Amino acid sequence: MQDEHEDMAVNGPAVVYEDDDVLVINKPVGWMVHEDGFADEKTVVDWFLEKYPDAKGVGEPGFSPQGKELKRSGVVHRLDKDTSGILILAKNQEAFEFLKQQFKNREVKKEYRALVYGRMHEKWGTVDRPIGRSAKDFRRRSAERGAKGTLRDSVTDWECIGTGEYETEPFSYLNLKPKTGRTHQLRVHMKAIDRPIVGDKLYAGKKLESSNNLDLGRMALHAHRLELVLPNGGTERFIAPIPEALERAVERIAEA
Fold first, then answer.
1. How far apart are CA 73 and CA 136, in angstroms?
2. Which of 3-12, 80-89, 157-166 has the lowest mean pLDDT?
3. More exposed terminus of the chain, fewer Cβ within 10 Å: N or C?
4. Which one is catalytic: 36, 54, 80, 82?
5. Which of 105, 128, 157 is the last residue of a domain?
C-alpha cells in the first residue's frame, strides 16, 4: 500500500467547495500553507496561485525572521505542515477582510481529531492556559511554567471519543475544539497536560522515541470541521473526512 503521505503529496489539495470569493480545500499532510523563508518546497499558496493567479497579493504581508517578505496570497488562517484537513482561502481582498474578522472575533467554529499518548480519565475537559515561547527551543511554544515573551490567552475544549491500547501501550482518540487560534495551540495544550499528540516530532519528546506511535507515519492531527459565514451571507460547515491512516490507527486501539 502506498504511504498516505506520498499519495496525498502527489495528488495535492482536494477542493471541497468554491465560489467567486473563497476556495475550501482538504490540505494534505506534509504541505506547508505558505513559505517560511527556510524550506524550498511547493506550498498551498503556490498551488492556489497556479489556479487563481488573480488572487496574487490578496491578504496581509508576512515576513520571515530575516525580514524577507513571504508569499501568503489568500491565506486567512493556517494549518501546520504536518496537520491535514480543512483550510479556507480568499480569492479577493474583500473576502479576506470578511473572513479575517470572523477569526479575529472568535466566531469561527473549528473541530480537530487527534490521537494522543496515554489515557484521558475524563469524558470532557478544557485546557485554559496562556501560550508563550519556549525558553529551550525557539521553534516551540509553551503553555507551561517558564514560558517567555508575551503570554496570550488560549483555550481548548476537548472530548474523549475513546481510549484503548495497541501493543499494551495506552492511547486516546479526541475531538479538539480550539476557542482561540494560537500557533501550535492544540499541540502545545496537549503537551501541557502530558498527553502530546501521537507522532508530534516537535512536542512529543521522549514519548515519540519510546512509543510504537500506532505504526503511523505522520502526526495524528486532522482539521475535521470548519463552520463560518461566507462572504455571500450563507453559514456553511465544511468537513474533511478522517484520513485512512488515522482511521486505521483508531481501529487498532478500538480492537484492544
1. 32
2. 3-12
3. N
4. 80
5. 105
Q: How many residues does the chain have?
A: 256
Give strand ranges (E) for 19-73: 22-27, 62-63, 69-70
Could you read off the pLDDT of 96-126 as tens digits, one per residue? 999 999 999 999 999 999 999 999 999 999 9
**Burial grade of 237 (CB within 10 A; 0-12, 13-18, 19 or more):** exposed
Q: Which has the minimum average pLDDT: 131-135, 194-198, 245-249?
A: 131-135
Closest CA to 109 of 157, 18, 179, 159: 179
Same domain, residue pair 134 and 156? yes
Provide the number of structural domains found in the chain.
2
Residues 115 and 95 in one domain: no
Percent helix, percent strand, percent coil in the chain, to nearest 5:
25, 35, 45
Structural domain span for residue 194 = 108-256
Q: Which of 84, 105, 126 is the last residue of a domain?
A: 105
Mark whether 80 is an active-site residue. yes
pLDDT tops 50 at residue 50: yes
Residue type, 59: G
User: Based on the domain organization, do 73 and 145 belong to the same domain?
Assistant: no
- Say how far apart CA 237 and CA 7 lie, in whole Å: 26
Structure-block grid coordinates of residue 79: 494549518
80: Cβ–Cβ under 8 A, 6 or more apart, which residues? 184, 187, 219, 221
